[in-house]
Amino acid sequence: DGGITQSPKYLFRKEGQNVTLSCEQNLNHDAMYWYRQDPGQGLRLIYYSQIVNDFQKGDIAEGYSVSREKKESFPLTVTSAQKNPTAFYLCASSRQYPHTEAFFGQGTRLTVV
Amino acid sequence: DAKTTQPPSMDCAEGRAANLPCNHSTISGNEYVYWYRQIHSQGPQYIIHGLKNNETNEMASLIITEDRKSSTLILPHATLRDTAVYYCIVRVGSSNTGKLIFGQGTTLQVKP
Fold first, then answer.
1. Among residues A20, A10, A24, A100, which one has the least CA distance to residue B32?
2. Which residue in A9, A46, A3, A10 sits closest to B101, CA to CA?
3. A95 touches chain B (CB under 8 A)
4. Percent of chain B with pLDDT over 70
5. Are strands B61-64 and B55-56 parallel, antiparallel or unpaired?
6. CA of B1: which chain A residue's CA is closest?
7. In chain B, which residues have their Cβ closer than 8 Å to the Cβ of A54?
8. Beta strands in A38-105 (DSSP E)
9. Which among B12, B79, B56, B2 has a CA at the least distance from the CA of B33?
10. Which one of A10, A59, A102, B60 is separated from A78 by 20 to 30 angstroms, measured CA to CA?
11. Band of residue B98 on the pLDDT scale cut at 50, 70, 90
């Protein structure tokens, strides 16, 4: 089935370690997004990519990095520079045009101890 | 960037219509209004979107005012499974740069 897959669902890391979250889609979508969600809060945009080998910072990009080497994949690295990395991370993808909905993965809950 | 404003919470009786308002007074002419909902600890689910005409699908109806400064999502017969956080989003920019900016959303509680 077509869809967007995030892995793992739960991730634990020690403070100071970099960690990479996976996001894969087989929907042939050009655009992909990463969001962060804290308890009781809305989604905040970290990075987004409109096309392969290109991406833009969202509202809270500091401490994060991404790559878009393949259309299907948009991994997010949470670096040690991110001061409060514990959060729920959501990946999404969409077509650029015509306007259609974005599809979300089920999220990765990252806990840094 | 266009921003949205929603009430933080609303209640609705099961079987009744739920009307969720959203203000987007700075929306530009080529920006679409999208609605998503998020059930606890899951990824958001698309509901509906529109530009300036009212829209209806199997899940909901979207009413956009003529000046496009506000919209209302209507769930015609709310069920307990409709309890969720509902997000009104303006897709920013042209069709080639359409990033999705989420607001705080409205927590809809459907009660028996």
1. A100
2. A46
3. no
4. 92
5. antiparallel
6. A59
7. none
8. 43-51, 54-57, 64-66, 76-78, 87-94, 103-104
9. B2
10. A102
11. low
